[in-house]
Design a protein that fits this description.
Helix content is 0%, strand content 53%. It is mainly beta and 112 residues long. The strands form two sheets. Strands 2, 4, 5, 6, 9, 10 and 11 form a seven-stranded mixed sheet that branches. The protein has a four-stranded antiparallel sheet with strand order 1-3-8-7, with no helix packed on it.
């Protein structure tokens, strides 16, 4: 069974940066579209960013200009570079791809 694994979460001060990674586990699986979502305490999961297999990117308005989604197709890995982090970016971040495949999530906590 294919799953995705996120890494790179942690605690950072407001204004800081983190870089999340997402790789598939289990069967060899070539990620097509990769998406990042996040879920803050008490809120619904929300879409953050997407990248197609040819590198086209899209961002939510909340993160546009601060976050950068990218991928390394040779390593079958995706990334989310998060800069200028704000308190409201605190959430569990999940990567997702087609077929309703999700990771377990990685916690990002931004403190003042």
């Amino acid at each position: 069974q294919v799953q995705l694994m996120e890494s790179g979460g942690g605690m950072v001060h407001s204004g800081g940066s983190l870089r999340l990674s997402c790789t598939p586990s289990g069967s060899i699986y070539k990620i097509a579209v990769m998406r990042w979502y996040r879920q803050a305490p008490g809120k619904q999961r929300e879409w953050v960013a997407s990248i197609s297999n040819i590198g086209d990117t899209k961002y939510s308005d909340d993160v546009k200009g601060r976050f950068t989604i990218s991928r390394d197709n040779a390593k079958n890995t995706g990334f989310l570079q998060m800069n200028s982090l704000k308190l409201e970016d605190t959430a569990v971040y999940y990567c997702n791809t087609d077929g309703d495949i999700w990771g377990q999530g990685t916690q990002v906590t931004v403190s003042s």
